[in-house]
Amino acid sequence: MSSTSPTNHTSTIGAIGAPSRRNTELALLVFAVAIPVFAYANVGLAINDSVPAGLLAYGLGLGLLAGVAHLVVRKFAPYADPLLLPLAVLLNGLGLVCIWRLDQSKLLQSLPTFVTAAPRQLLYTAMGIALFAVVLAFMKDHRVLQRYTYISMFAALVLLLLPLVPGLGANIYGAKIWIRVPGLGSLQPGEFAKIVLAVFFAGYLMVKRDALALASRRFMGLYLPRGRDLGPILVVWFISILILVFETDLGTSLLFFGMFVIMLYVATERTSWIVFGLLMSAVGAVGVASFEPHVQQRVQAWLDPMKEYTLSQQGVGGHSEQAQQALWAFGSGGTLGSGWGQGHSDLIRFAANSDFILATFGEELGLAGIMAILLLYGLIVERGVRTALAARDPFGKLLAVGLSGAFGLQIFVVAGGVMGLIPLTGMTMPFLAYGGSSVLANWALIGILIRISDTARRPAPAPAANPDAEMTQVVRPS
Amino acid sequence: MSELTLTVMRLGFLAVLWLFVIVAVQVIRSDLFGTRVTQRGSRRDAGRQQQPARQQATPPQQRAQQGGGRQRRNAPTKLVVSEGTLTGTTVALQGQTITLGRAHDSTIVLDDDYASSRHARIYPDRDGQWIVEDLGSTNGTYLDRSRLTTPTPIPLGAPIRIGKTVIELRK
Questions:
Q1: Which of A1, A2, A3, A9 to substitute to test the interface with B, most B CBs within 10 Å?
Q2: Domain presence at residue A439
Q3: Domain that holds residue A304
Q4: Does residue B7 sit at the A interface (CB-CB below 8 Å)?
Q5: C or N terminus of chain A, fewer CB within 10 Å?
């Protein structure tokens, strides 16, 4: 009847292009800088009864770094995910506050190995953001990495083997995962190997995934791959066992193998790879633990931390009271924590601001704070996987999954180790922990994820006009 | 520093931290992109505050039955394809617009060389009467024997011919 009536029940269905979301990112960044500044003031008030003198400089420093990173994203990756950068900045800022807070501890200051770590960490953060900017500015398209598939493999092997080179490698606290660079201090090449390996696995699996996925027999609900397709996974497994034996580091080994299994599963959609992976890592870990004393000791400390603690207190060499102390720190934090600067996690002594930094968070922020921090990590992983889902090219998909999978695995390995779920490893919490290699490598990782997400969310060119429209035949009146 | 201030700061910090997490999750929620479905008529109806507005508020299924039942006893409930490659296909009439054509997003996709990509549409007017409208097709839409020029109410059981396809409304 009336001309408006047809529209009453009509719905329009239209595609929404992803908006650029840069302003959302900026707002979140301001929030992400404000939270650490609040924490910083809180630590000062709790320990020294006054707002710390460096508050303005510190806030401006972090804000400036975040601002630079934001401008770089705005310029070079305008469609990138709005959450990755603020999440990383927030975690990095919280880590800085926690390191500064541990610097204030009288107990830690009395240790012979004490260095004021916070200014150095700020410097590392600046270097990390610079690396982030370089990645975004010079890597216009993540697919260029595909060209370096096999070079990446060699680079990763070299990086992993460097700590074993005599004169270059350094055995620090039992794990040989550092190298000493004259004039620069020590470096953990494993952190960088994580990224380079993801590039290699993505490039390799993209080419081989059909063979790995399709040529298989079905047996008891599982797709069993052919013998010769087992080759790659066996090689990777063997290398990670070698890492475990020679570098005595469970973390790197687990990360290396776990990342491969995750990417293999994503590339082939075969659950059997996960089953194989779990079986093989169990066999490998148990096998190595049966003869390697350093690994054995870590397992002992995991099974019975209290016994380790007692032995260590009695002065028996080769035992560490840290695992038990970390558990006490979590326990004394309770649900809501003791508040910034009011815990006693400095009793953990050395490595309190690197491997065990999570224990300080657990004590001073409590369960509520730890859950929030783990959620922040979870959100980074979620955004990475979401990027992989949105990516249009298989290499980008696999790379994003590999990087976020490695990131997630590392968090599991470190948090699980500190909380006593799995044996301790020598890895560090990304962004939170003190350490140049870790901060640099993780900023590079976030840079690559942002690059992939920019490509994935960039609006696609408009589709060609509908070809159906011209093919309608005309009825000829006869 | 007094105990109270520190406690307030401690709880305040946790609240702020969680607020960030919640805001981040909200951003993810608003960041889901894909297709957006907008009910075009709803705002206009809400402004009118009359009988149609009440119809809009009820779920579509009830609405179609109400609208038809109140007006006419013989309201059609389904659309049936009686000739052509899609013979036997039925579409329940629930107050929605049905588009016909070769375009992939049509309600009934016609595999017919003589149909246009957006050939015709069938929709209920405000009284629940079903209307067929030709969308400027090449070969036209026929109701009974006459070629449509304007939107026309469809009598129950009258054949609508589009190319080689014939559809009709049934109870």
A1: A9
A2: yes
A3: 17-458
A4: yes
A5: C
